[in-house]
């Protein structure tokens, strides 16, 4: 039985072309074309498609449109076709449960995806032989699977399953606001906590690829580092490609990317690339030592590293970022369960955050993931937190976290001793503890840092499946 495809796109010519290309398909029957939103609604109802290809419709947000369609037709599968300049939104679309394919659309790609969707009552068929690799690759590269006919992913299941692992990205669109300081303190805080009686396994990752200072702020060596892992990934990719009977030096960059996405991951190898903080056992994946090495880090490396971290048995993955919108930062934002958006209570920093929030809202980034943190609050500020909240148009239930300006911070940066490891009342330390507890609820009793290796937590099946 063929899968029924509805094509929604206002580009009449490309719709016609695709329909013509699929006319003899054994796997797909184009059951309708819609050039506008009204028409799409009507045809979703009347033509009963199995899957919907969403190209662009002028004046509409594809993410919003897709959410509305999915609400009304929860059993359908949706594919977003993106042009190369839209592909940066791919992780975001994936999070919404859409499949993503790049334009120009190859009919074979749609056929391959269609074969993965099994309508109720339909017996599994053998996929078209020539597309088997594509299917395998799609499974690999799109881990948040869109809802299938038999097992729709429900909103309530996923957060419950993933609760035990958190990827937290500390970001702020301005330099010098305290991202690295807060990342360091949060990482140390978590590494001293327990969850259900077991010490948390924590890794801090320095995604300031060219000018990272995370290791320095803990007096840690810079080798091994992210680039050590990148080199190993390329070696693994070479042998993987050779194992597939291809010459890695003569394949196109597209093929290279495809192989990269299909490369088997080795989360058990991560420890080879980290340095351990002696006092707490915190693992740190530091940025490269030489700025030239950072230029060799590509988006597929970062993708593989983030995917591997997600599959590892770390409970908390904490990423410190640069104040930019490079690929490393964008990927760190889209992979995160929580984003700590750091700013200072000064006009330009507030304005930068406001602009970024606007951008993320336009892209329908799930705002509940973002925690705003105002760092270096003085006793008397020009703007109150309530004024800042109103300016950001935050939901009334949303708290703005604040960290006071504290003389102890500068000292602790200079000595490489986190405030979190110091005794006595330090206001900045208490504020970070509050933030940490909100990000990842832990047992109340705190583990004292004693420099001993923490017991390894057994990785449960669910963590591997959903982590
Ligand atoms: N709460 C604070 N109180 C006092 N000084 C702070 C505080 N947070 C950060 N700083 C100072 O700001 C400097 C820059 O912080 P850093 O974390 O490197 O910023 P970013 O990573 O955003 O560029 C630090 O070296 C520290 O001296
Ligand atoms: Mg920094």
UniProtKB/TrEMBL annotation:
Residues 4-118 form the Response regulatory domain. It comes from the Bacteria. One of its GO terms (cellular component) is cytosol. Pfam families: AAA_31. GO terms for biological process: negative regulation of cell division; phosphorelay signal transduction system. GO terms for molecular function: ATP binding; ATP hydrolysis activity. This is Transcriptional regulator.
């Amino acid at each position: 039985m063929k899968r029924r495809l509805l094509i929604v796109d206002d580009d009449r010519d490309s719709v016609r072309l695709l329909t013509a290309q699929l006319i003899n398909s054994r796997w797909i029957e184009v059951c309708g074309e819609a050039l506008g939103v009204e028409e799409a609604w009507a045809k979703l109802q009347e033509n009963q498609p199995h899957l919907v290809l969403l190209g662009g419709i002028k004046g509409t947000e594809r993410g919003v449109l897709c959410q509305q369609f999915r609400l009304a037709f929860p059993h359908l599968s949706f594919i977003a076709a993106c042009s190369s300049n839209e592909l940066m939104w791919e992780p975001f679309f994936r999070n919404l449960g859409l499949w993503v394919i790049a334009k120009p659309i190859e009919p074979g790609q749609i056929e391959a995806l269609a074969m993965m969707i099994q309508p109720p009552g339909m017996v599994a068929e053998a996929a078209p032989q020539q597309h088997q690799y594509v299917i395998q690759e799609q499974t690999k590269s799109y881990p948040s699977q869109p809802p299938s006919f038999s097992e729709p992913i429900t909103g309530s299941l996923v957060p419950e399953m993933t609760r035990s692992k958190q990827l937290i990205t500390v970001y702020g669109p301005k330099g010098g606001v305290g991202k690295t300081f807060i990342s360091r303190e949060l990482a140390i805080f978590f590494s001293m906590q327990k969850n259900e009686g077991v010490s948390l396994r924590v890794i801090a990752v320095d995604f300031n690829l060219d000018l990272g200072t995370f290791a320095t702020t803990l007096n840690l060596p810079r080798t091994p580092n992210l680039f050590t892992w990148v080199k190993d990934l390329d070696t693994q990719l070479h042998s993987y490609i050779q194992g597939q009977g291809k010459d890695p030096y003569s394949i196109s960059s597209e093929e290279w990317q495809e192989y990269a996405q299909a490369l088997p991951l080795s989360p058990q190898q991560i420890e080879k690339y980290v340095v351990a903080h002696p006092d707490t056992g915190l693992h740190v994946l530091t940025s490269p030592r030489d700025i030239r090495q950072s230029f060799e880090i590509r988006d597929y490396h970062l993708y593989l590293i983030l995917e591997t971290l997600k599959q590892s048995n770390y409970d908390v993955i904490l990423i410190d970022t640069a104040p930019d919108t490079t690929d490393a930062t964008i990927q760190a934002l889209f992979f995160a369960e929580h984003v700590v958006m750091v700013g200072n209570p000064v006009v330009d920093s507030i304005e930068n955050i406001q602009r970024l929030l606007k951008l993320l809202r336009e892209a329908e980034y799930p705002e509940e993931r973002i925690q705003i943190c105002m760092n270096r609050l003085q006793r008397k500020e020009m703007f109150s937190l309530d004024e800042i909240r109103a300016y950001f148009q935050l939901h009334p239930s949303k708290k703005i976290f604040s960290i006071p300006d504290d003389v102890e911070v500068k000292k602790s940066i200079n000595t490489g001793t986190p405030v979190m490891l110091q005794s006595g009342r330090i206001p900045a330390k208490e504020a970070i503890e509050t933030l940490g507890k909100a990000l990842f609820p832990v047992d109340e009793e705190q583990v004292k840092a004693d420099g001993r290796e923490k017991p390894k937590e057994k990785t449960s099946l669910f963590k591997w499946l959903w982590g």
